[in-house]
Here is the input.
Amino acid sequence: MQKRRLAESLEVSALGLGCMGMSEFYGARDDAESLRVLHRAVDLGIDFFDTADMYGPHHNEELLGRFLRERRPQAAVATKFGIVRKPGAYARTIDNSPDYARRCCEASLRRLGVERIDLFYVHRIDRNRPIEEVMAALADLVCEGKIGHVGLCEVTAATLRRACTVHPVAALQTEYSLWTREVEAGILPACRELGVGFVAYSPLGRGFLTGAIDSRAALADGDFRAQLPRFSDDSMAVNRSIVEAVKALAQRMNRTPAQIALAWLLAKGHDIVPIPGTKRVRYLEENAAAVATPLPAEELEALNAAVRGMVVAGARYTQEGMKGVNA
Ligand SMILES: NC(=O)c1ccc[n+]([C@@H]2O[C@H](COP(=O)([O-])OP(=O)(O)OC[C@H]3O[C@@H](n4cnc5c(N)ncnc54)[C@H](OP(=O)(O)O)[C@@H]3O)[C@@H](O)[C@H]2O)c1
Here is the structure.
């Protein structure tokens, strides 16, 4: 698998693996199959694994810990802190305090069974706490060898700029895909100017861009997506036009829609590392194959032309969730 450089000292496979869905959010978990996915990913050359303390809590990090016991030398692990889960479906608050960051880091190290977290992200920004204070606390963890690099999620260019004055930010992780392109306007140029790598989460539009989800009824009880405005039946009826464009190209190129969505993103720049999530070996293999088969420039342009001007209906998070992004 080709490599991409997020930061000077952080080179990872061009495609990472998002592990969130192995624990919750997108239907039932199956640990045995998820472990097969993790091991197969390494065999395919994927060496960048994305988790967070709040996934499952804390099932996802523990699952990765089981895998890392055997494959640590072949795997860079990225985890996150800052979202505090509350009782009730997906309820949460944000805590970026230095003391909380340290406690989370130490707990993640224990669950993952590693001596150092390769990339430690602030999952959501606490708007009431200066980012400089948070970065100073994370810089201490770097100095102590507990984390290798610092990352941020879903921040504005202004916050990123301020953060970089305290300590280098190795990567910004934010949603980016064919139907979520806001980062192209301000964030991506800022990352490039500041030398910050970009990790694209939900690159398959949480599964929607693959064409596998065509109605809310297709989602299992308790599936996180059912509460997102973008996944209401009315929104999906509008958003289907993007999927149709992806499917048309997939058919013409003899690929799958997921491979087209990933190839489009991979072509956006060598500083971008998409982290598609799956808990199935079949999907993993399909997604990994997208790296070896870039889209020809004229096909990319045809796809861009097809989706240009298309409206995306529905916010990507609930009203409450939107308060946590662009912070
Ligand atoms: N920083 C943040 O705030 C944040 C937020 C969300 C996600 N993330 C990270 O980003 C990772 C990826 O994002 P995501 O999981 O939300 O969304 P995604 O990668 O866009 O899509 C995942 C969904 O697509 C399905 N899928 C995967 N490959 C497929 C294929 N080839 N054909 C058909 N369906 C396919 C998966 O199904 P199965 O589940 O059935 O395999 C799952 O339902 C997460 O795992 C997590 O690590 C970070």
Q: What stands out?
A: The mean pLDDT is 97. Residues 18-21, 26, 50, 153, 173, 201-207, 210, 212, 258, 275-280, 283, 286-287 surround NAP (CB under 6 Å). The chain is about 40% helix and 15% strand.
